[in-house]
């Protein structure tokens, strides 16, 4: 009895989350997808390292940190672009996107240098 | 140590008896080959007429047949010099000297032309060298032709002018303005004065010649001497001709002396031993450069005047005779005889004479046996031979005192023989070693435990054993060929341990008997308490012993007590230098093992795997329904938008190139340009987009 209620609760929760998520604007969904992509790439790299060993450690680090870094920047962009966020009301989304592009370019320069 | 001491004693004794005993040999083929080497002409001629004269004169005196063929070039040079109106007296002097030797074809016209010039230069001369060159040239002309008038009118005046430059110690100055006096200058002054005397039209005042003779004697007061009997004149000052030394100064004086003695008819009364000493000075060795060789040979030729003696013109400086033994080491075993050669300095035969062995000094003792034995003359080889050595001559160092006795009493004035001549002789022989034995004795009673006879100097291999309470005794007798006792320079007994620690003992003697007793009880500390096998070696040697030997005798097993705690350790033995300094073992470098890399297929698999999320992202984007609706349509903003995308792509491809081959600095440079471009374009595009969306919002 308890088990089924918790299962039902979980399912209900899941559904409500899903419907709520559907309401988010497309731009934010794009950014979420991008974050997902970056994180999964990072995880695959960590799995590879676990198999073959960390020999060119700098390469491993640069790979993982580029994924992590770009994910973080994307999250920042999402925060700034989200209209429901009262803090960044006056910030035009183009400006945020410009920052995102610039920071990504700098990050990737550093990553390329560290790649070896 | 004992060896060094022995040698020192020997050296001291040899020098004490050999004060004055040394060997001089006359001119030999060594001088001839040196002359050929040093006087080789360069490119068919010598540098100057002076060098040509030196070379030709030296080769002529030495009798070298193979003369360099420089006659044509040198004769041309001589003729040019003689005919040239600008030649000074020095050039003419050397040209005439060369002509005397080469006998170039010159007629009397040439001589006449220069004779008057030379006479003028004699009267105008101011320095010693001017006088020397002009007077010398005139004498040379006189020798070469009798047609030309070269006699000096005012010979007395010239004589006085040259004499005015002399100093009180017998030396000469080069000119009145130069205060320094030189022995070389004295030599050439004498030669010039001899020339003046021979060129005088009326006889030179005898008083002047007499004062000059006393000057010469004063010069001889300053003569210096080496210990081996060589006399020389030293040159104290560097003059205008460059460095002069004792060789050139002595050579000049000898030339001047002999020229002067020939020119004047009176005798000079120079002591014969000093003339002989000067000859010995010139016979010491062969100089290394051409000029010194010329000085040496020229001076020797003057001393050994080779010219035909005309009846009433005597050569008044005595001709030195040199006695030289061909061998100074005589062996009693092969019964070698004492021989001596007597020659003039240039190696010519001496007049009839005999050599007498007067005394024989032995090894440091002052008294000698008087012998007075005459040596037989072997006319075939030109050598004097002593038949059989004196009875008292045994093995050792001796000084033979010989005397040269001239057969013709007239020759006594003509030749300088040097009185008593000391010749150092080494007489070697075979030393007999007898009654050799080695024994191990008990220390208490001296009773013999083991005894072995030794065959010296043959091979031996005895095996003894002893402990520290016993003694080792070695005994042998040494006898000379004549049966006397003999004390060698070296008589050592050496014991060497297996660890290469060795001990050396001197074997003492009383008369013929040599004995050494090693008392091991007292030597225990010296031997560092090392027990074990000691190799025995005996060394007996001397310079006059023909059968010196260094023989291993065998070995002795020594039993030493245990070393106490404070005992000295044996000194570390020298390491074989090849072990310490030789090549070491090769080090093979171990390179860092490269890391294990995964197989390529795995890497490619994961490459594919990593690209999957990208594909998933793109698929997701399509699912979300992304569109390019907001892309600006009007041309200018569109271009900027395209340029923006293009700029980002360019930056990313620059990063790709950076990873592949560029370095950071080029990348940053390029990035700078691209970044500026991207910023401007991006700003334009995004501001346009912002304004568009703002318009939409407000609208």
Automatic annotation (TrEMBL), chain A:
<keyword id="KW-1133">Transmembrane helix</keyword>
<comment type="pathway">
    <text>Protein modification; protein glycosylation.</text>
</comment>
<dbReference type="InterPro" id="IPR003038">
    <property type="entry name" value="DAD/Ost2"/>
</dbReference>
<protein>
    <recommendedName>
        <fullName>Dolichyl-diphosphooligosaccharide--protein glycosyltransferase subunit DAD1</fullName>
    </recommendedName>
</protein>
<feature type="transmembrane region" description="Helical">
    <location>
        <begin position="33"/>
        <end position="51"/>
    </location>
</feature>
<dbReference type="GO" id="GO:0008250">
    <property type="term" value="C:oligosaccharyltransferase complex"/>
</dbReference>
<keyword id="KW-0053">Apoptosis</keyword>
<comment type="similarity">
    <text>Belongs to the DAD/OST2 family.</text>
</comment>
<feature type="transmembrane region" description="Helical">
    <location>
        <begin position="57"/>
        <end position="77"/>
    </location>
</feature>
<feature type="transmembrane region" description="Helical">
    <location>
        <begin position="97"/>
        <end position="115"/>
    </location>
</feature>
<keyword id="KW-0812">Transmembrane</keyword>
<dbReference type="GO" id="GO:0006487">
    <property type="term" value="P:protein N-linked glycosylation"/>
</dbReference>
<comment type="function">
    <text>Subunit of the oligosaccharyl transferase (OST) complex that catalyzes the initial transfer of a defined glycan (Glc(3)Man(9)GlcNAc(2) in eukaryotes) from the lipid carrier dolichol-pyrophosphate to an asparagine residue within an Asn-X-Ser/Thr consensus motif in nascent polypeptide chains, the first step in protein N-glycosylation. N-glycosylation occurs cotranslationally and the complex associates with the Sec61 complex at the channel-forming translocon complex that mediates protein translocation across the endoplasmic reticulum (ER). All subunits are required for a maximal enzyme activity.</text>
</comment>
<keyword id="KW-0472">Membrane</keyword>
<dbReference type="Pfam" id="PF02109">
    <property type="entry name" value="DAD"/>
</dbReference>
<comment type="subunit">
    <text>Component of the oligosaccharyltransferase (OST) complex.</text>
</comment>
<keyword id="KW-0256">Endoplasmic reticulum</keyword>
TrEMBL record, chain B:
<feature type="transmembrane region" description="Helical">
    <location>
        <begin position="638"/>
        <end position="658"/>
    </location>
</feature>
<feature type="signal peptide">
    <location>
        <begin position="1"/>
        <end position="20"/>
    </location>
</feature>
<dbReference type="InterPro" id="IPR055374">
    <property type="entry name" value="Ribophorin_II_3rd"/>
</dbReference>
<feature type="domain" description="Ribophorin II C-terminal">
    <location>
        <begin position="591"/>
        <end position="691"/>
    </location>
</feature>
<dbReference type="InterPro" id="IPR055373">
    <property type="entry name" value="Ribophorin_II_N"/>
</dbReference>
<keyword id="KW-1133">Transmembrane helix</keyword>
<feature type="transmembrane region" description="Helical">
    <location>
        <begin position="664"/>
        <end position="681"/>
    </location>
</feature>
<feature type="domain" description="Ribophorin II second">
    <location>
        <begin position="322"/>
        <end position="427"/>
    </location>
</feature>
<feature type="domain" description="Ribophorin II third">
    <location>
        <begin position="435"/>
        <end position="558"/>
    </location>
</feature>
<comment type="pathway">
    <text>Protein modification; protein glycosylation.</text>
</comment>
<protein>
    <recommendedName>
        <fullName>Dolichyl-diphosphooligosaccharide--protein glycosyltransferase subunit 2</fullName>
    </recommendedName>
</protein>
<dbReference type="InterPro" id="IPR008814">
    <property type="entry name" value="Swp1"/>
</dbReference>
<comment type="subunit">
    <text>Component of the oligosaccharyltransferase (OST) complex.</text>
</comment>
<dbReference type="Pfam" id="PF25147">
    <property type="entry name" value="Ribophorin_II_C"/>
</dbReference>
<keyword id="KW-0732">Signal</keyword>
<comment type="function">
    <text>Subunit of the oligosaccharyl transferase (OST) complex that catalyzes the initial transfer of a defined glycan (Glc(3)Man(9)GlcNAc(2) in eukaryotes) from the lipid carrier dolichol-pyrophosphate to an asparagine residue within an Asn-X-Ser/Thr consensus motif in nascent polypeptide chains, the first step in protein N-glycosylation. N-glycosylation occurs cotranslationally and the complex associates with the Sec61 complex at the channel-forming translocon complex that mediates protein translocation across the endoplasmic reticulum (ER). All subunits are required for a maximal enzyme activity.</text>
</comment>
<dbReference type="Pfam" id="PF23861">
    <property type="entry name" value="Ribophorin_II_2nd"/>
</dbReference>
<keyword id="KW-0812">Transmembrane</keyword>
<comment type="similarity">
    <text>Belongs to the SWP1 family.</text>
</comment>
<dbReference type="InterPro" id="IPR056790">
    <property type="entry name" value="Ribophorin_II_C"/>
</dbReference>
<feature type="domain" description="Ribophorin II N-terminal">
    <location>
        <begin position="27"/>
        <end position="303"/>
    </location>
</feature>
<feature type="transmembrane region" description="Helical">
    <location>
        <begin position="602"/>
        <end position="626"/>
    </location>
</feature>
